[in-house]
Amino acid sequence: MSRIGVLSGLLGSIALAAVIVAPNAAAGPPDAARLAGCDFGREISTYDHAHDLDGYFERVLDRSTGAFHAEFAQSRDALAGAMRQAEVRSTAENVTCGVVSGDFLNAEVLVTMTQLRSNLNNPETERLNMAINVKLTNVWGRWLAHELDSPLLK
């Protein structure tokens, strides 16, 4: 068999394998998107005005991109001042996540959790069940949040 015949057969096999595998591979985003959305929801919901507030902003910025990242970075000083003044604290419990839609470049993850929060005006810890839609983009292999939506944010 000639080199051209072998090469044609090999390329034909690769093309056939790609057609057979591609629909399954493109069926949904990898689990990494779900995990990144879950991590982002937990990080953005966990803060303490008196403990490592700068670290909070760095963790959120490290996990975000696009317009959300730019707006969060731009409002950082004003938001940190307001958080310190209101003495806010929040932690996330019972965080669960599921992929709503997506592919290998973009995904939407629904994050549900119980947020435990308090502030100067309401020092008793309040339990709030909430849901957040996190839209993510795959940036060089890292899933980063570019949009956040929740009924509580409206």
Task: Please tag this protein with its features.
globular, 44% helix, 154 residues, alpha+beta, 5 strands
Describe this structure in words.
The protein contains five helices and five strands; from the N terminus they run ααβαααββββ. It has helices at residues 3-25, 31-44, 53-62, 66-74, 76-86; strands spanning 47-48, 89-102, 106-118, 126-139, 142-149. The protein has a five-stranded antiparallel β-sheet. Mean pLDDT is 84; it is low at 2-27.
Could you describe the largest sheet, including whether it forms a barrel?
5 strands, antiparallel
- Biggest sheet, spatial arrangement of strands: 1-2-3-4-5
Helix content: 40-55%
Measured between the Cα atoms of the first and last residue, the distance is: 68 Å
Q: What fraction of the residues are assigned to beta strands by DSSP?
A: 25-35%
Discrete helix count: 5
Task: Describe the structure concisely for a colleague.
The chain is α+β, with helices and mostly antiparallel strands. It has helices spanning 3-25, 31-44, 53-62, 66-74, 76-86; strands at residues 47-48, 89-102, 106-118, 126-139, 142-149.
Give the SSE map.
Blueprint: H1 3-25, H2 31-44, E1 47-48, H3 53-62, H4 66-74, H5 76-86, E2 89-102, E3 106-118, E4 126-139, E5 142-149
Antiparallel strand pairs: 1-2, 2-3, 3-4, 4-5
